[in-house]
Amino acid sequence: YWKSYCIGLCAVYLAGISPQSRVLIITEGKDLQITLMTNIHNMLLSDKFADVFPLYARFNCDANAMFEQDIYYRLKFVFSRQDYSIMVKTRKGASNGTRCDFLLIDDLTKGIDDATPDLHKKILNTFNTVWTARSDSEMNRRTIIAGTMWAPFDWLNLVQKQEVANAPLIDDKSFKYTQRTKNGHKIFVSVP
Fold first, then answer.
1. What's the CA gap between 99 and 113, in Å, rounded?
2. Are 66 and 59 in contact (CB under 8 A)?
3. Is 62 exposed, middle or buried (0-12, 13-18, 19+ CB in 10 A)?
4. Mean pLDDT, rounded, for 82-102
5. Using alpha carbons only, what angle is made at residue 5 by residues 164 and 163, rounded to the nearest 5 degrees?
6. Cβ–Cβ under 8 Å, residues 14 and 75
7. SS3 (DSSP) at 108
8. Which candidate, 111, 82, 109, places its Cα nearest to that of 24?
9. Over the chain, what is the mean pLDDT?
10. DSSP 8-state code for residue 192
11. What does the pLDDT read at residue 76?
């Protein structure tokens, strides 16, 4: 639950600091999709959010005033020039044609049924060919992935191996449990 909450918090923070951005979240299934969007919705409509991000205070925590579009998987702020502000899709759902400025990926596997190397390779392939193609450019590819790296074949371990193949990791001296590539383009936080 905490990983999903943190992903939702990231989406809300990104909406606060970059109101015209498009945040696309990919998650495991419909239940988590609905829970994530409900949490995001509640955070955006809170007094605390309006206190931190004054642009949103004018809406007085009113969903009808804040959102032009408000459905269980998609939000669009009334002032947005984009086709959406925050969208949550499932890993099996289509995201073709959906562009984004930030891609957040939340815990794509659940339970014993997902404990197969083949499924994790398939998810990695989708990550490489579909989800990372959602950004408008290489420079704009900002991705945050949350999950549990519980097996050597887990897709998160596969992503880490792939991403650091040409850029070895070094320990970050400022942050515990954090490694980054020398150029700083990739950061991995692994909390035991």
1. 31
2. yes
3. exposed
4. 86
5. 5
6. no
7. coil
8. 82
9. 86
10. -
11. 96
Plot region of 184 (φ>0 → left; ψ -120 to 50 → alpha; else → beta): left
Band (112; pLDDT cuts 50, 70, 90): low
Distance (Å, whole) CA 27 – CA 16: 22
Task: Kindly state the DSSP code that residue 53 receives in the 8-state scheme.
Answer: S
Phi and psi, residue 132, nearest 5°: -75, -10
SS3 state of residue 62: coil
Tokens 């990550």 appear where? 127
Alpha-carbon torsion, ordered 59, 70, 90, 36, to 10 deg: 40
Nearest-CA neighbor of 106 among 83, 82, 86? 86
d(CA 51, CA 136): 31
Q: Residue 108's pLDDT is what?
A: 80
- Angle of the 2-17 helix axis to the 30-44 helix axis, nearest 10: 50
What local confidence, expressed as pLDDT, does residue 168 receive? 82
The DSSP annotation for 154-183 comes to SHHHHHHHHHTSSS-EEE-SSSTTEEEETT
Contacts of 127 (CB under 8 A, 6+ apart): 105, 155, 159
Q: Phi and psi for 69 in degrees, rounded to 5?
A: -135, 130
Residue the block writes with tokens 């829970």:
35
Structure tokens at 131: 């989800």
